[in-house]
C-alpha cells in the first residue's frame, strides 16, 4: 500500500515542499562541480577495516576499491539504540541497501557506509525499547489481551546513572535491559548482548549479523576519523563568527518562507558548533584549539565532518536530517566542502498479514489508522452515528429551552438560583456528551470481529498515537520473522519517495 507522505502524522512541512519540487533551500541533485577528486583521507580506510573486523564485518576488499575512488559513495546514519532501536533505523538501512543494489544492477559500483552516532548523549532515547506484546512467544505472552501503555507493548527502559552529557556509544548496555529482553523472548544470550558490551559494539554487531558485509559501519568517535577531520575543526574554530552570521541569515530566510530552523541557537543567540570531550566522556562546549580526538560534533556540524572525510555522492537521511541540510547547505560553500545529493529515506510500516488484511476486509484506508479505532469505526457507520448525534443535539436544544423557561420564572423570585442553574447546565451538557459517546461506541462495537480487527490494526500501526516506525522495536519483529522482515523491507522500501508503505509480513 502506497500512501502520500503528507498523510504521515507529523511529517516535516519543509520536506513535503522539497519533495514536491521546492528547491529554494536545498537542491535535489548535487552540483557536478562539487564532486570529490580524491579519497580517503589519511588512515581512515585502514581504521575502518579494523573496526568493522572487530564487529564481524569483513570489508577489506570493499574499502580497497573505495580508496581508489572507483565507486559511488552513499551514506546514512543513526544513533546506536539498544537492540537496534526503532523500526525507522531498519528503514534507513534498508534504503541504503536498496540504493546500493539498484545501482549495482545498472553496473555502477557502490560503497555503502552507515554512520554510528556514538557521540550522541541522549541516553534515554538509546536505552528505551518498545516491544509489541503480540510479537512475544505465545507461551510467554501472559498479557496478550492487555493494552499496556495503550500500545500493546512493553516499554523497556534503563535509567541514566551518569552525567547526562556523557556520550552514549562507549557506555555499557545496562544488564537489566539485556536480561529483560532475553526473558521476554526466551532466547539464548547472543554475543552482541554479552556482559559489559557497549551500546556501540552491541548495535554494530547486530547490524553485522543482519546485513553481513554489505554495509561498512563508521564509528563517529573513531580517532582516525577525528584526526582526518582536524582541518575542518580548525576552519570552524577560525571562522566561528562567519559561520554564526551565515546560520542566522539562513534562519531568517527559512522563517520568511514559513519554515522553522531544525536547530536553534542557545540562550546567548549562538549556535553550538563543536563540543570537547573530557576524561569522563562528557561533552562540554569546545574551547579554542581542542584536540581533534577529543572534538565532538553537533547536529549542525556532524554532516560537515561526514561530507569532508567521506565526500559521499549521496546522503540518505530522515526528515529531520534533510532539514539539517537545508539549514547548513551555505556552510558547505563557505568551507569548501563537497555537497552530496540529499535523498529521503524510505518510510515503511509493517504488519502481520493477518492484521494487514483488515484494510481490505473492512474498507479501511491506510491514513485512517492515524486516529482512534473508535473514530475509524464510527466513520464506517455514518447513518446511525449521524442519527444518534442529531437526536442528542435536538434533545439538548429542547432541554436548554426548558431550562431558560425555568430561569425566567424562578430567577426574579430567587437570584441565588443562578449559580445552581449554571452548574446544572454544565452537568447536563456533560452527560449528554457521554450518552452520545456511549451510544456511538455501542453502534460501532456491534460487529465484534470488525471491532477487534480495527483496534488491533490501529494499535499495530499507530500505537499510543505514535507512528509505528518512530517507537516500535524492529528487533521484536525480527525475532518473529527472521530475515523475512529484512528482505521484505529492502524489497518494498522506496528511497527518496513522496510515499510511505504499509508492508505485510
Could you please describe the fold and organization of this structure?
The radius of gyration is 27 Å and the shape is globular. With 505 residues, it is of the alpha/beta class. The longest helix is centred in the last third of the chain and has 29 residues, at 382-410. The protein contains 21 helices and 13 strands. The model is unreliable at 141-153 (pLDDT under 50). Helix 2 (44-54) packs antiparallel against helix 3 (60-67) and helix 4 (87-105) crosses helix 21 (483-492). It has helices spanning 13-19, 44-54, 60-67, 87-105, 123-126, 175-185, 199-211, 223-228, 230-238, 240-256, 302-310, 319-335, 353-356, 358-361, 373-379, 382-410, 417-444, 448-461, 468-471, 474-481, 483-492, and strands at residues 2-4, 72-78, 110-116, 128-132, 153-157, 216-219, 274-277, 283-285, 295-297, 314-317, 341-344, 347-351, 499-504. It is 47% helix and 12% strand.
DSSP strand (E) fraction?
5-15%
The main sheet orders its strands as 6-3-2-10-11
Distance between the termini: 13 Å
Query: Spans of 5+ residues with little confidence (pLDDT < 50)?
Result: 141-153
Biggest sheet record = 5 strands, parallel
Which structural category do the helix and sheet elements fall into? alpha/beta
Cα-atom radius of gyration = 27 Å
What does the overall shape look like?
A: globular
Helical percent range?
Answer: 40-55%
**E-strand count:** 13
- Total count of helical runs of at least 4 residues: 21
Average pLDDT reading: 86
